[in-house]
Design brief:
The protein is α+β, with helices and mostly antiparallel strands. The protein is built from 7 helices and 9 strands; from the N terminus they run βββββααααββββααα. A hairpin with a 3-residue loop joins strand 2 and strand 3. Helix 2 runs antiparallel to helix 3, helix 2 runs antiparallel to helix 7 and helix 4 runs parallel beside helix 6.
Length: 251
């Protein structure tokens, strides 16, 4: 099949897979076309002109051309390598998890501008702003679910309507907030929050995305928020993540 004209596009490498002797298959996240699978020939050679671009979590501008169902890398220029991540194994592992999460909710050849911005902002918060991984992780998870169409209803108790639920809990299956005494016995489906963790949840879901990581929580409220976020994500996406297992193994 004849090749199409070259396209110039910015993309973040979500995943790299080694193939053949020196090639890689890259999964790029782009604003205009969502996920793209790109063959980067010779990317594992030391003298490859786009080797730096062809690594996980590299944000770059690519010149691509298409043959059949595949895109091929022609040229690449790095825009951001998130050096703060690459010098901190725990932050790097969390970055890989954020990328795998984003890949899980992104489709191919569909615009993904909001998801890309969210991922770039999360990596920037870890790399340049030095935000604590324990805070970035639940905020990223919850906001990603909102962007992917799984936004929880966190403005009031879904059963009695109270805007300030007593002993608040997040029902991670139904994605609703409830008082500890409302909703009946749904053991294992609801995770306990507190006043501070509920305020943080509302900030994440309803607040300005540019200020997503601008909150602070004490150790116990943050633990509750993190447990609720992870359980909500697991219940909604119904799958595990190997990068999350690796991240936890480092802690």
């Amino acid at each position: 099949m004849a090749s199409t004209p070259h396209i110039v596009i910015r993309g973040l490498v979500l995943r790299e897979t080694e193939t053949k002797e020196a090639d890689k298959i890259l999964t790029l996240l782009t604003a205009e076309r969502g996920k793209l699978s790109v063959i980067a020939r010779g990317a594992r050679r030391k003298n490859c002109k786009f080797a730096a671009c062809a690594q996980s979590l590299a944000w770059s501008e690519w010149t691509l051309y298409q043959r059949g169902q595949w895109y091929y890398a022609g040229e690449g220029a790095t825009l951001e390598l998130f050096g703060g991540l690459r010098s901190d194994l725990e932050a790097m592992a969390l970055g890989f998890y954020l990328a795998e999460l984003t890949e899980a909710v992104t489709t191919e050849e569909s615009p993904a501008g909001e998801l890309l911005r969210h991922l770039l902002n999360g990596l920037y918060a870890l790399s340049a702003l030095g935000k604590p991984p324990d805070l970035v992780k639940p905020a990223f998870e919850l906001k990603l679910l909102c962007l992917a169409g799984y936004e929880p209803l966190a403005d009031s108790c879904a059963f009695c309507g109270s805007p300030e639920p007593e002993s608040p809990q997040l029902d991670v299956v139904q994605g609703v907030l409830r008082c500890g005494s409302c909703g009946g016995g749904e053991g294992g489906r609801s995770l306990p929050l507190c006043r501070d963790s509920l305020a943080a949840l509302r900030h994440i879901v309803y607040g300005d995305p540019k200020r997503l990581y601008s909150f602070k929580l004490g150790e116990e409220p943050l633990r509750r928020l993190s447990a609720a976020a992870e359980a909500f994500l697991s219940a909604q996406l119904e799958r595990g993540f190997r990068t999350l297992d690796f991240y936890k193994s480092l802690r």
